[in-house]
Specification:
It contains 5 helices and 6 strands.
C-alpha cells in the first residue's frame, strides 16, 4: 500500500529541468523560447535560484531570491506562454505591503497590453509572453524585477541591521 500511496502522490507530476522545459516550450510556443531564455539568463546572472515545476499540464520555472534569511519567489514562466506575477507569495518586506505591490503593478502596467487591476494584488495575475516579444516590453519587465530584487535586498539588509 505504501507503493500505491506514493504512486498517487506522484501521479500527474513530472520533474522538469532546463533542457526538458525548453524542449517542450519549443514544441508548444517556439516564438517564446528566446523570451524565456533571456528571462532565465537574467535570473542566473543575478544569482537567483531556479525552481523547475513539477506539473504535467502547465509546468513553469520560477526565479527565487535567497538572501539574508529570506526566500522569495519572483514570478513564473509557464509552458502555456504565460508570465505570472506571484503577489500571493510576496510575504517579505516591502512587498508584503499593498503600496509596494501597487507600485510593482503600476510598473508592469506600463508594458503595452499588461493590465493588473487592484483586486489582483493578492493573487497571481498573468499576461502572455507575447507582450514581451518587443525589446521594450522584455527590457521593461527585467528592469522592473531588478528594482523588485533591489527593494527586497535593501529591506532585508535594513531589517538585519535594525535587529
Amino acid at each position: 500500500t505504501s507503493i500505491a500511496e506514493q504512486a498517487k502522490k506522484t501521479a500527474g507530476r513530472r520533474d522538469w529541468d532546463e533542457a526538458s522545459y525548453f524542449d517542450e516550450l519549443a514544441v508548444r510556443h517556439r516564438d517564446y523560447v528566446p523570451i524565456a531564455r533571456r528571462i532565465l539568463k537574467w535570473a542566473v546572472e543575478r544569482g537567483l535560484d531556479i525552481w523547475w515545476g513539477k506539473g504535467i499540464q502547465d509546468p513553469s520555472f520560477i526565479p527565487v531570491l535567497d538572501f539574508a534569511g529570506i526566500r522569495q519567489q519572483l514570478f513564473g514562466i509557464y509552458l502555456s506562454g504565460v508570465f505570472e506575477v506571484q503577489f500571493q507569495y510576496y510575504k517579505h518586506p516591502p512587498f508584503n505591503h499593498m503600496e509596494y505591490r501597487r507600485e510593482l503593478a503600476n510598473k508592469l502596467n506600463l508594458i503595452s497590453g499588461v493590465s493588473i487591476p487592484e483586486e489582483r494584488l493578492t493573487k497571481r495575475p498573468s499576461f502572455s509572453l507575447a507582450l514581451l516579444q518587443s525589446e521594450d516590453g522584455l527590457s521593461h519587465v527585467l528592469s522592473t524585477y531588478d528594482w523588485f530584487v533591489n527593494q527586497l535586498k535593501h529591506h532585508a539588509t535594513k531589517e538585519g541591521a535594525d535587529g
